[in-house]
Design brief:
Helix 4 packs parallel to helix 8. About 40% of the residues lie in helices and about 20% in strands. Strand 7 and strand 8 form a beta hairpin. The chain has eight helices and twelve strands. The termini are far apart. The strands form three sheets. Strands 2-1-3-4-5 form a five-stranded parallel β-sheet, sandwiched between helices. It is globular, with a radius of gyration of 17 Å. The protein is of the alpha/beta class.
Length: about 230
């Protein structure tokens, strides 16, 4: 039974969403501020977190930043209707997805289910064909889907579920271009809509993480108006 942490200072949201998730078979922990959630996560991490951005004591952005220093678990942001800047910042900092308030609880459940399904597929190796479950080596890059492990020039790089899937899709065929639509299909469930900016934000975050292992990393090339490709070094 996956454990989901729901962090929001709106008690009505905590109550209603937790009831919906529990009815779907999930175990739910609720917190009404970021600091309380972070203190609990230091003792035991959930399988996924759903975070509001604007909260007392520690907001969602700061909590995300702290969590990404220790875990790659899936994280969904809850954002206000017009907070596009917050959405982009959240994705660049490592969130896997976002849902705008006011939101359909059914939509939130579908996005949670999709992220957990993708994470489970990676961790168990049940991703597409047998070939895709093997350790993949592309120049200085090594990816192990069974362990959700990535190294670049021998240095470990911690990626989120979405970042791992995007890098895997690009590196599988070096030199071939993947459009943003193709990358959306790889990274997201059919029932989840994202726009071009979301993929761009994930790619920027992915590059930044790879450059922590090698500040000269340039294997992911942008072809403006077309998409991205991986160039084997």
């Amino acid at each position: 039974m996956p454990k989901i942490a729901l962090v929001d200072d709106d008690r009505n949201i905590l109550t209603s969403v937790s009831m919906t998730l529990e009815a779907e078979g999930y175990e739910v922990e609720t917190y009404n501020d970021g600091q309380a959630a972070f203190d609990a996560f230091n003792k035991r991490l959930p399988d996924m977190a759903v975070l509001d951005i604007k909260m007392p004591r520690m907001d969602g952005m700061e909590l995300l930043q702290k969590l990404r220093q220790k875990t790659a678990m899936p994280i969904i942001f809850l954002t206000s209707k017009d907070d596009e800047i917050d959405e982009v910042l959240g994705l660049r900092m490592g969130a896997d997805d976002y849902v705008k308030k006011p939101f359909s609880q059914r939509l939130l459940v579908e996005r949670i289910r999709a992220l957990l399904r993708r994470q489970d597929a990676i961790s168990t190796g049940e991703v597409a064909t047998t070939e895709e479950t093997k350790v993949m080596v592309r120049g200085a890059l090594e990816m192990d889907p069974l362990r959700h492990a990535v190294t670049w020039k021998g240095n470990d790089v911690t990626l989120t579920v979405t970042e791992f899937l995007l890098l895997q899709a690009l590196a599988q065929r070096p030199g071939f271009v993947k459009s943003r639509d193709q990358l959306m299909d790889v990274a997201y469930d059919d029932q989840v809509y994202v726009d071009d900016r979301t993929i761009d934000s994930h790619i920027k975050r992915l590059r930044k993480k790879m450059r922590t292992a090698d500040d000269e990393f340039s294997a992911i090339e942008t072809l403006y108006g077309i998409g991205y490709r991986y160039n084997e070094e």
